[in-house]
Amino acid sequence: MDQKYWNFIFIGISFAIYIWIAVKSRASSTKEYYTAGGGVSPLANGMATAADWMSAATFISMAGLIAAKGYDGAQYLMGWTGGFVLLTILMVPYLRKFGKATVPDFVGDRYYSKTARGVAVICAIFICMTYIMGQMNGVGVVFSQLFSISLTKGVLIGSAIVFFYAGLGGMKGITYTQVAQYCVMALAYTIPAIFIAIVLTNNFIPQLGLIGNYTASGESVPFLQKINNINESIGFSEYTASKLTTLNMFCITAALMCGTAGLPHVIVRFFTVKDVKAVRKSACWTLGFIAVIYLTAPAIGAFSRVNLIDKLNDTSYKEAPAWFKDFEKTGQMAWVDKNGDGKIQYYGPAKSEEKTSSPFIGKKPTYPPADSPESLLIGAHGERLLASKTDPTNPNELWFGADIMVMANPHMAGLPKWVIALLMAGCIAAALSTAAGLLLVLSTAISHDLMKNIIKPELTDKEEVRYARIASFVALSIAAWFGINPPSAFIAKTVAFAFGLAASSFFPTLLMGIFSKRVNKQGGIAGMIAGITFTSAYIIYYQFLNDTGTPLLFGISPEGIGVIGMLINFIVAFTVSAFTPAPPEDVQRMVRRIHNPSGAGEASDH
Amino acid sequence: MEDQDTHQDTNETSGGYRKASLRILFSLLTIWFIVSFGCGILFRDWLDQFTIGTAPLGFWMAQQGSIICFVLILIAYAILMGRLDEKYGYSEKSNDKGKETK
User: Fold this and answer.
1) C-alpha separations of A103 from A82, A100, A123, A474 in Å
2) What is the pLDDT of residues A75-100, one digit of tens each?
3) Cβ–Cβ gap A596/B40 under 8 Å
4) How high is the ipTM of this complex?
5) How far is A118 from chain B (nearest CA, A)?
6) In a 10 Å sphere around its CB, with 0-12 CB exposed, 13-18 middle and 19+ buried, how is residue A387 labelled?
7) What is the pLDDT of residues A293-328, one digit of tens each?
8) What CATH number labels A3-308+415-491?
9) Domain range list for chain A
10) Domain residue spans in chain B?
11) A77, B66: Cβ pair inside 8 Å?
């Protein structure tokens, strides 16, 4: 049976399940729409949160980024999981006890000010928008792969699907759909990894394969030794070596951690369980489920790198495997025959005097328009020609996007077709579950926090839900546009910025709100504004405006600057609070109250 | 212990409970810092002289070990806090369902 049919069967079945669940558990009230009525079991909530958490970026790009970065990829692994520990220990039980539906609700009440609530709403929208762009791009990558269509069409199809079922179900529908999506994702991620681990290391547990021996070619060498040798022989630095300064690595990891702890769409998830005790239990389940995938990712990254280099390097194009040509068609892999020998050569920066390793000039390949004469489209060996100028300073001829590592993996290992189909279904589940959760928070931020609590307090429940649906449509359209024109080459990088912004705004503001009775309205607002302004200015400057390479501040790259933004937020907030009067007595009482775990009651929505 | 009788009226925590819960919080965060930033980044090079399986320990801590520790930390947190709640009578069962949220 053809691959296409397998794909359709697997994706069709998974979609049927999602829609069936979404229809079954349709929201009937605003409370169900926002927090599923507060009665989801810890286990189910754990799975749903894990699915919400694991975005398309995690699923599709993380293993690829780890494969490309080696040791440095640990910043994502530790950052995202370690941040979850912060979230559970420092934030969630207290916010659950506070008992309102959204994060801006807490900020608004704790800092007793509409301005604070307004700033929080804007931060929430900003963070969710940055994050959702990465998801839409991810959906686009999968669909373009699936139907061999352009990225633009892929993004549009994906958006239509997300809008359909996020608008339908509200939080209750989304929660139960995400339980199903987690199962699909976990199977789709681990099954190919197990197959590949057996082939490469003769060990059916991928994590043990990573610390075991490479046995595929008859010899038996430590696996990490093998990948280090491969990297060095073609001019990359050792896989296990760090390419970043310790300070930079520290800052990026810390920014991802604190950002994770301040992500509004994850915090909201814990408002759907019964009480504080269930919150703690639910968090254990969530991290356990997340760990299943996060512990597999480094193994997939390392395995696929060995496989890719083994299969492609020094192979003549005519004999290259069919999947390489498929990825070439969709523009996710490219080959430039620099030396005209008809063979694919893959080299790292150490093989060139200028320390470059891109086959062409620019970050991504560009292609001549489809109606150009054939001599511009197809090269001497049948390869797809690029419009991009060849970079003559290095001998490397191969380009591939980090995003495809996971998707090309089963092809590379020659796995059965149904495994590839399952992987496709998993990618889509990952993107859909996160996009739906984000969309819900976005629409809530606009309808509940902005419209109802700031602009039009007389809004009825029904109107509020309608505003929520309109808001999700607008948000999705913007997200789709950015999904087609992503501001950064890697999906995971786009998402990293959302974390930087969350680290510099929500995390410190919530932390001070929960643990300090002294930080007041003026301090909270000033801190939030200072933190987010600094961080976004730094990121925008280095990401969009600065092509000439002004040296980075303290050598910290834009992904890690959220930590400095967070410190600025703390300093500004405490300084301003010290010179202005303490918060009123009822707010101080509220801070004491949220430290008592009992009597959380139901999450109320107004 | 001193406010144990009054906490249900005011719904505020007693000093003893708050102190004990902060102690749990700080000790777990210390472990959290050591296994991630400590073993995975700051002392990674030193740890690499040891191996687990065939992998250098520092590298393994950064990519695998820290995540396993994180899960254990959360389990410990749920158990320790659950015990503390029981000791101070905050656990949901001993308390008739609080309804103070408006």
Assistant:
1) 21, 8, 11, 21
2) 888 988 999 999 889 888 888 887 77
3) no
4) 0.85
5) 22
6) middle
7) 999 989 988 888 888 888 888 888 888 888 888 888
8) 1.20.1730.10
9) 3-308+415-491, 333-399
10) 13-91
11) yes
